[in-house]
Design a protein that fits this description.
The chain is α+β, with helices and mostly antiparallel strands. Helix content is 36%, strand content 13%. Strand 1 and strand 2 form a beta hairpin. Helix 1 packs antiparallel against helix 3. The chain is globular and about 45 Å long.
Length: 120
């Protein structure tokens, strides 16, 4: 796996939570909270609808590694330390897929819903 904790958090948010890429990239540290003794993430989805998503322990650990003690700002950061946008997230996912699935031709590889890249 990648040494970058943001990569692991991105994959965890998309694959284990089923978040859309814009939801994962738009999440802030201040969106994290606790509800009925469970760690939750407040997500603004399509149409501006806000929902609380309970975090499985693996996702909570991935997020904690990515935020690394910060108290505000985006959960996911790019290599320059700014907010990771959907284009940067798509590039990271492609990079990870190419690195870990090198034998498969590009057209045969399928990503789960929400992890796809527009235009492909």
């Amino acid at each position: 796996m990648s040494e970058n904790p943001n990569d692991f958090a991105l994959v965890a948010l998309l694959s284990l939570l089923g978040s859309r890429i814009f939801e994962a990239c738009g999440s802030n540290i201040t969106d994290l909270g606790e509800e009925h003794c469970h760690r939750v993430l407040r997500v603004r989805g399509k149409g501006g609808k806000v929902v609380l998503i309970p975090l499985p322990p693996a996702v909570a650990r991935a997020i904690e590694r990515a935020i690394d003690g910060r108290t505000d700002g985006p959960i996911l950061r790019n290599v320059l330390g700014g907010r990771m946008d959907r284009h940067a997230a798509s590039r990271r996912l492609k990079h990870l897929a190419d690195r870990h699935c090198p034998a498969e031709p590009r057209g045969d590889r399928r990503l789960p819903a929400g992890m796809g890249v527009c235009g492909e």
